[in-house]
Amino acid sequence: MKVTEEGTKHSQPCEGGSPQKDNAERESYAGVCDSLRITENNITDANGLLEQILDRANMNRAYKRVKSNKGAHGIDGMSVDDLFQYLAENGASIRQAIMEGKHKPNPVRRVEIPKDDGKKRPLGIPTVVDRVIQQSIAQVLSPIFEQQFSENSYGFRPNRSAHGAIKKCQENIDDGYKYVVDMDLEKYFDTVNQSKLIEVLSRTIKDGRVISLIHKYLRAGVVIKHSYRETVEGVPQGGLCYA
Q: Which residues contact 135 (CB under 8 A, 6 or more apart)?
């Protein structure tokens, strides 16, 4: 079974997020888009991050992680059990396509899972091949950004958990703190401004090829009940690069 790329060729505006409400905001985001184009046109930096991502050992480690996580298939129907043979036959051409900027990520398959409050949470399931690529990206970029994160941050971080957060809260109580503020941003992942996200990433990632690859994944779109939809804002929950 081959990975399909049907439905991924769509012209999309640079600006991510909802329509702007006033001229000042439009000018602000126009500046972000200009910065994005400049960043994505940069070939590389001294560290060669794309080469690190596509390193055979790094991609093999990513494959093993995706294989162990199992999970459902994407829009092409390929399962993790089919992944080894497919990568053995096509891995070199996939790496070459990414190096040349020609790789086109597939749209994610949208599913909904129930939440404790009776509502449903939308999840985007990438193809297994795209999961390997995303995992390869995450393995290289995570250690870089880990150095920038707050020591009081526990969500979606390696070697950290809810138990660690509770332990930290107990330490705060022991230090005399008496109040806890609990906040949840409604539909946060669904409303992330993609252009702003890329601009923030570009402050640290100086390899424009990596920025361009991440941007392609953000704009790959979703398939909901066999219907394709563009993703001009938000990040899919379920993709390894985003959540």
A: 62, 65, 66, 240
Token pair in block for residue 200: 């923030």
The predicted model scores a pTM of 0.75
Residue 71 to residue 125: CA distance in whole angstroms: 9
pLDDT the model gives residue 116: 83
Write down the H helix ranges in 17-122: 23-41, 49-53, 56-69, 83-99
Give the residue among 69, 89, 61 at the shortest CA–CA distance from 2: 89
Q: What is the pLDDT of residue 240?
A: 57
Q: Phi-psi bin for 98: left (phi > 0), alpha (psi -120 to 50), beta? A: alpha
Residue that has been written with the tokens 């129930």 in this structure: 114
CB 66 within 8 A of CB 131: yes
Confidence of residue 241 (pLDDT cuts 50, 70, 90): very low
Give the separation between CA 68 and CA 65, rounded to whole angstroms.
5
**Facing residues of 223 across strands?**
109, 228
Please check whether residue 39 is in contact with residue 208, taking contact to mean a CB–CB distance below 8 angstroms: yes
Residue 117 confidence (pLDDT): 82
| Confidence band, pLDDT 50/70/90 cuts, at residue 43 | low
